Amino acid sequence: MSTSDETPVRFDTKIAVLLRDDLETWQRLNVTAFVVSGLGTVAPEVIGEPYADADDTAYLPMFRQPVLVFEGTKETLTTAHGRALSRALPRAVFTSDLFSTGNDRDNRAAVRAVGTDQLDLVGLAVYGPRNAVDKVLKGARMHH
Predict the structure, then answer these.
(1) How many CB atoms within 10 Å of residue 12?
(2) What's the whole-number mean pLDDT along residues 49-78?
(3) Model's pTM, two decimal places?
(4) In terms of CB atoms within 10 Å, which of 56, 70, 84, 128 comes out highest?
């Protein structure tokens, strides 16, 4: 089977972000940016090739596939978090405590201070096989 450069690429993996549905717009954007930032460090295959414009100005590489953003209740996030853990999928979390910290050290300390089942999750990023990520996100809805 031959393919051309115009053939749409269908990925067998999925990058997804789940946001709590009661966040302000600025919080949604901030949480999304933070939680996806770690995925390329543990799953380098999610990063594509560097970009360049017609004048040969270089730009950083980005994810090679779309990031799908979902929303759900606090309970939906807690359930999805447990599913991601049970499937050992690469994941990143953002808790409500991180809105009041100002640096990486304090962010890590805020997460470290709370047990897994007690995290007040407002955001979760997950990466893995499409069907596994779909199961993690069951009950969430696409963000609009």
Answers:
(1) 8
(2) 96
(3) 0.90
(4) 84
